[in-house]
Structures are given as structure tokens and as C-alpha cells.
Amino acid sequence: MYLEFPAVYRFFKEYIEASGGIFELKKALDWSVWYAVKWWRELVDAGAHRTQNTFVKALYNALLTRGIIDEEGGVRRDVKKPEMPKGIYAREWVELHQNFDSIDVVKVARDEVDRNVLDLFYSDLQIQGWHRIMIKTFFKAVGMRNDGAVLEPYSREGHLAVLYFEDYRPRLYVGYDSSPSLVELAKKTAPEGTFVTANSACDVSGRFDVVLLVEKMQWFPDPARELECIWRAMAPGGRLYVAQPVVESMPGYLAIHAALGAIHVYSWKDVENLLQMHFKLERRLIKTMPFYGAVWKREES
């Protein structure tokens, strides 16, 4: 994960500086690993580590990838409790994990937590300062277009649209989500955009120059089919901007995302294997930290 620091500094300098510098950021990221191990131990102690749950899967795959646990789930090496960072946004990142830790992770693994509690947690995550800076820095790093028609899959409450409209003025912005209540909320959160209830991009009319896959692929019930639908909805030459948490990145954050309703957990290679079925890789910024980040293109047809 930390081997990518040079690339991260190159493309995410603003995010790093907002976190208090590279060493403060590393302290913050270390907490994500520490909490992931803590939660895994709690699941094992309760016998909940074998449940068929995306949260458990995320923890298992992330820790197995790092060699922290073995294939049977046994902890192979301990992780020292990190020093608390001093940067405001780095501390906010740690507090995200602390707040999630206050939820009983065993109940999360057994699907016994009130859905409203998790939904509120997701809403809070979307508006935190570190998250806003991370996403806006990603937009700058990929050279986000300032025109054309934009499609946002699984627009949820509309917070990504708010960030986009702060710096860009597209000709058209359409978000879709399968939840009618979330669509209504998105309309209020980001009134500049158009939000529709749809199960898939195949059900959305229009041709789009830009697709924002920013922490979205984990929601797709059938990723291969949804990406094909997105391909059909895109204009030739359109760009797909992908920022996806993966098992090689930040294990605690990945697990939190999984607990908040994610259906799938990916490695960075999984993400690329799915995307290359319909798109061509134009530019890969980073593989793992703070997420897999790249630009993919719909070629002329």
C-alpha cells in the first residue's frame, strides 16, 4: 500500500497537505489497518468470521492480502497501535474509524444493526472534510472535463453531485439510483442535477460524455452487466472516471464501505478485468491508495 506514496504525492498533494503532510497521513492510514485487525479479532472471538457477509469478506480479503491473517483466518502477525495524527483531516479520518468501532461489529457481521444507523453513518461520511478534499483532488488529478453530459450511477443522496457542481458546469448532469427515496433526497441536495429512479444505466435515456464511477462499483448487483449498460449510455470517445476502494488499499475504510450496503469487494485487478471488457485504459493514476484511480475510455464504434 505505502509503495505508492510517490504517485500519491504527485497526484494528491493537496489532499496530503490538508492531512498535515505525508507522515501525518501515514499515521492516519495505519489506524485503518489497526482497526481492521481489531474488528477481525472480535469477529473470530464471537465465531462471526465465517458469516456470508460483505463486511466480513472485505476484512478477510484485505487482511489476507497484507499477510496479516492466513487463509483460515488466524492472525499471523500483530499490528502495533499507531500514534494519533495531529492534522485536522487526518484526525477526522481516524475518528471515522473510531465512530464505526462504537457500532458492534459482530452485529454488523450478522446483519443485526438497524439499517437507519448505517444509512446515517454513510451520509456523515460523504460530507466529512477529508472525503471532500480526497474526491475533489481526484477530479483535478484526472483533468475532469468542464462540459458535456455527465452520468452518475448510484447517485445515492446526491453528495457527489454537490462536489462536482462546486467546480464544474456540465451541459447536463444525470444521476440514477434504484431507491426512489434516495432520488428524492438527491434532488433536494443537488438541485442543479437531474435525478431519476432506475435499476440500471440501461434504463436511463441520453448519451453521456462523462461517467463518474467514484466509489460506485461496490453497489452494482451485476457489475459486468451494469458496465455494459454504461457503455451503451456513453457517447463514443466518452470517459469513465474511476475511483474505487479495493482490498489492497485501506482495510478499515473498505470494511466500513462494505458494512454500509456494498454488494461486492474488489482487488484492483478485479476492477480492471471488469472495465476492460468494454473500455480501454487511458490513464492509471494509482492502483491502491487512497483507492484504485484511473481514466477509461469508450472507444469509437
TrEMBL record:
<dbReference type="GO" id="GO:0032259">
    <property type="term" value="P:methylation"/>
</dbReference>
<dbReference type="Pfam" id="PF13489">
    <property type="entry name" value="Methyltransf_23"/>
</dbReference>
<protein>
    <submittedName>
        <fullName>Methyltransferase type 11</fullName>
    </submittedName>
</protein>
<keyword id="KW-0489">Methyltransferase</keyword>
<dbReference type="InterPro" id="IPR029063">
    <property type="entry name" value="SAM-dependent_MTases_sf"/>
</dbReference>
<keyword id="KW-0808">Transferase</keyword>
<dbReference type="GO" id="GO:0008168">
    <property type="term" value="F:methyltransferase activity"/>
</dbReference>
